[in-house]
Specification:
Layout lengths: L19 H37 L6 H21 L2 H21 L3
Helix pairs in contact: 1-2, 1-3
Length: 109
């Protein structure tokens, strides 16, 4: 679904997901991890762009600059995602859970 995160199948008992409320509760449970994983991917992509800019202006690119950049990016990403975009995130996770449940059900046991 979204290249920036995927709900880990090991975290969810798909057989127990039957109602909309079940999906919502499962999404609530995995939401912090989904936000964090998404932030990690986005931080790396943003760092690559920022690093190119730094090199263009002749600035040194160090591992400590990267750690600081990624840490600050993740902090901001998690804060924004958990406040202003929480419902949109939940909707994405619920959709992904539904898709994964369908895939899980289609696999022979």
């Amino acid at each position: 679904m979204d290249k920036h995160f995927e709900v880990s199948v090991g975290q969810v008992d798909f057989d127990s997901l039957t109602t909309d409320e079940d999906f919502r509760q499962a999404a609530e449970h995995v939401l912090p991890v989904a936000i964090q994983k998404s932030g990690e991917v986005l931080a790396e992509e943003a760092w690559d762009l920022f690093k190119t800019r730094l090199r263009t202006v002749g600035a040194r690119v160090t591992a400590s600059k990267k750690r600081e950049f990624v840490r600050d990016f993740l902090k901001n990403h998690e804060q924004i995602a958990s406040t202003t975009g929480r419902e949109a995130w939940l909707d994405k996770v619920i959709l992904q859970l539904r898709e994964q449940k369908a895939e899980h059900a289609a696999k022979p046991r």
